[in-house]
Write a structure and sequence with these properties.
The chain is mainly α and 470 residues long. The chain has 16 helices and no strands.
């Protein structure tokens, strides 16, 4: 069932123009009535007014502003931690944060599935089934979250040796975040599915604000990298409490209600795509921590932090692109114009930041992180270029999922294998070679998106479905 949160009962198109206003073919513009000439302009202005004032536009602006603000606060935390900790300790922080980022992208699959079914049940006005579904998802998240957290804690000691950490405390500090990444996607997915975008944005922003204070306090107490890492699960659970307060009606006991079954095929495809993307984006930080000295890994920390700026906006853009492209495709309209706008919105800022990083690498690191870190040189520009290309991959991934096109997911998995092999063969002795391989992986991934999704045309359904306002 296609979900349409931005439904409009009417849609004004050229097909709706009264017969007496339709322009007849003519070679003399002077003979065309003025009222008829104005019809296309009036219709175009009307369409733009509808788009600008639509609920979808307001939801997009609210969510984008909240995600950008939350991402900016998280970025500030990373910068402050880089200034407060020694380069070696900051290298530990960056490596553990990269692992958590992989878990984060995996958790987005849970959020997407919960949001889909919550939206479907909301459209059907079946509150009993919605509550049953939410409670079933909540129990599932607790069960698997606790089990996965226990496994992560057991693997902390061997993982610390693999990452050449002096002790396992940073990994143990990160373990509670695994449980949070099972629980938070359920509440976030429900808020997204019932279209409570304002509350969803406030949850993200509140977590980012609280994290700043927790991080400052724990680092001031002398907890070093472990304290900076533990501040994240503390802030995440604080925001989880806020989300649960808003979702209290969904946790009321229901009787004789059957929870909606989940399509595991779509869920598995979504999980695989997000896992591949998350690993590709964070592979460099783990690679450097594993194959380079602690000093080099510490100096590479600012490079990772600066490059992540390119991924702030794509996260919000992807959340908006997926349902919008799905709606257009389901109603027989070409979704590629939205795709092009999204790609331009993430690639152009990334290229501008890359230019700055190529031009002033030492100045940027010194002014943002202080004089304790070495000048990264061309490595900073290459890493930012790769991150900018990865931002494009996030758009292609959401577009492919909206079209239910798993071919791109499999192609992206092949690109990840190519990139990992190239980094191992050529990047173990040179950061320049490593980041060059990352750039080639980003280029191949975008090319794979073009090949696997661009030539898909929607089946025309005009006259058979209700049109929607996008």
């Amino acid at each position: 069932m296609a979900i349409n949160p931005f439904r409009s009962s009417t849609r004004e198109t050229l097909l709706d123009v009264p017969p007496d206003q339709v322009l007849e073919p003519t070679t003399n513009p002077a003979t065309v009535p003025t009222s008829a000439v104005d019809v296309p302009g009036r219709l175009l202005n009307s369409q733009w007014r509808k788009i600008i004032t639509s609920i979808g536009m307001r939801h997009g602006l609210i969510l984008s502003a909240a995600m950008i603000l939350a991402g900016g606060l998280d970025y500030i935390v990373n910068v402050l931690v880089g200034r407060w900790l020694t380069p070696v300790e900051y290298g530990v922080f960056v490596a553990i944060a990269a692992i958590l980022q992989v878990f984060l992208y995996l958790s987005i699959a849970i959020r997407n599935v919960v949001a889909f079914y919550a939206a479907e049940l909301t459209a059907e006005a079946d509150q009993s089934s919605l509550r049953a579904f939410v409670q079933r998802a909540w129990r599932w998240a607790w069960q698997w979250g606790l089990a996965t957290t226990a496994v992560v804690m057991l693997l902390s000691v061997p993982s610390a040796r693999l990452l050449r950490l002096s002790n396992s405390w940073p990994l143990w500090a990160a373990a509670p975040m695994v449980l949070a990444l099972f629980l938070r996607p359920v509440t976030d997915g429900v808020l997204q599915g019932v279209q409570a975008f304002g509350r969803l944005g406030l949850v993200h922003v509140s977590q980012a604000f609280v994290r700043v204070f927790f991080t400052a306090g724990l680092v001031a107490l002398g907890c070093q990298a472990a304290g900076a890492i533990f501040a994240l699960p503390l802030a995440c659970f604080t925001a989880l409490v806020l989300a649960c307060l808003w979702l209290r009606p969904q946790f009321r006991v229901v009787e004789d209600a059957v929870a909606r079954r989940v399509s595991w095929h779509y869920s598995a495809c979504t999980l695989l795509g997000l896992a591949v993307f998350g690993l590709m984006v964070n592979l460099d930080a783990l690679f450097v921590k594993r194959f380079f000295s602690p000093a080099v890994a510490g100096d590479y920390g600012p490079v990772v932090t600066v490059a992540k700026v390119c991924l702030f906006f794509p996260m919000a853009m992807g959340m908006i692109l997926l349902p919008k492209a799905k709606q257009r495709h389901a109603t027989g309209r070409d979704a590629r114009p939205i795709l092009l706008v999204a790609l331009a919105g993430v690639l152009v800022p990334g290229l501008l930041l890359t230019t700055v990083c190529f031009t002033f690498p030492g100045f940027l690191v010194n002014i943002v992180f202080g004089a304790a870190y070495s000048n990264p040189g061309i490595v900073l520009g290459l890493a930012c270029l790769a991150a900018g290309l990865y931002a494009g991959l996030n758009i292609w991934l959401n577009y492919a999922l909206s079209l239910e096109r798993p071919a791109f997911v499999y192609a992206l998995l092949a690109v990840l294998c190519f990139q990992g092999l190239g980094m191992y063969l050529f990047g173990r002795g040179s950061l320049i070679h490593m980041t060059t391989v990352m750039v080639s992986g980003g280029l191949l991934g975008n090319l794979a998106g073009l090949i696997t999704t661009w030539w898909i045309y929607p089946t025309s359904k005009l006259g058979h479905v209700k049109t929607i306002e996008s």
